[in-house]
Amino acid sequence: MQPFNENLIVDYKNSDDAGIYKLTDEIALVQTVDFFPPIVDDPFKFGQIAAANALSDIYAMGGKPLTAMSIVCFPDKTLDINILREINAGGLSKLIEAGTSLVGGHSITDTEVKYGLAVTGIIHPKKVRLNNSLRDGDKLILTKPLGNGVLNTAMKGGMVKPESIETAEKYMLQLNKYAAEISDSYDVSACTDVTGFGLGGHLCEMLTEGGVGIELWYDSLELLPEVEEMVSMGMTPAGTFRNKEYRKEYIANYEEVEPEKLDVIFDPQTSGGLLFAVLASEADSLLKELKEKNVHAFFVGQCNSKIKNLFVK
Ligand code: CO
Ligand code: CO
User: Ligand 1 center to residue 274 CA distance, Å?
Assistant: First the structure.
């Protein structure tokens, strides 16, 4: 436990996407860090995806990313240094798109490549979007199709079409900036981004003890191409099993849900979309505006105080 500090608005305790520290009544810092090993073969695209993923946690809190520092692990004795240049260039391209300045970084020699960013942003202290402040009746919208964990596993097994991988990459390297900006003028009660815990895991993080429950509308979910086929062939990443095990008791009807559906719901995502809880009366217009502005978006469910935890419909 760290000592109480009245300026510390969000810390590590509630699995929020980023920490928030109030500087003045008008302005607070938003800080996050994320890095991981390559998930695609192309080093430039890997840099782009890692940067989009790291920036996403600032957008999920409702913040604006201002500066970033890179974190690099690289086997400089065994790999061509041009690979690292490509990774950095990919990351920088996304920072430029985000209007975020790269201010520095740190690299070490390691046996495996890893890359990511520590990002600092700002937000109005009263406009912070927590992940667990759902209201009864709020509708849930997600802004990227699901299943990139499944496709990544299937790709390693050479099972999936290259076009499907390309589609998955297209979404992973997409910034959540546009979705966040569009949502800014809507009554959003809670927001997070869908990453390693899968849609199901992140929905569970949104639940609070004794608070409103969530109906998950499985048939309304939009998936990347070939995801269902790959799941039925058993192309499930190891993370899915951990995610299911960890959150099982929060799924009210876990035993009744088809195992293939659970594999989709708990598929760990890399650089997934934003998950908004929006006032029901504004939900259709938010969905419409997102789509009109070329952000992939669909309903995933609705908050309901009559149910406990998560119910898969
Ligand atoms: Co996050
Ligand atoms: Co994160």
Answer: 9
Q: What is the CATH class of 8-127?
A: alpha beta
d(CA 177, CA 56): 8
Fold classification of 139-312 is: Phosphoribosyl-aminoimidazole Synthetase; Chain A, domain 2 (3.90.650)
**Which ligand gives the minimal distance to the CA of 117?**
2
pLDDT tens track for 213-242: 999 999 999 999 999 999 999 999 999 999
Which H/E stretch holds residue 299? strand 298-304
Q: What spacing in Å lies between the alpha carbon of 201 and ligand 2's midpoint? A: 14
If you measure from the C-alpha of residue 310 to the centroid of ligand 2, how many angstroms do you get, rounded to a whole number?
23
What amino acid occupies position 218? Y
Please state the pTM of the whole predicted model: 0.96
The rounded Å distance from CA 33 to ligand 2 centre is: 6
* Ligand in closest contact with the CA of 205: 1
Ligand 2 centroid, distance to 28 Cα (angstroms): 19
| Cα of 34 from ligand 1 centre, angstroms | 9
In the chain, domain spans: 8-127, 139-312
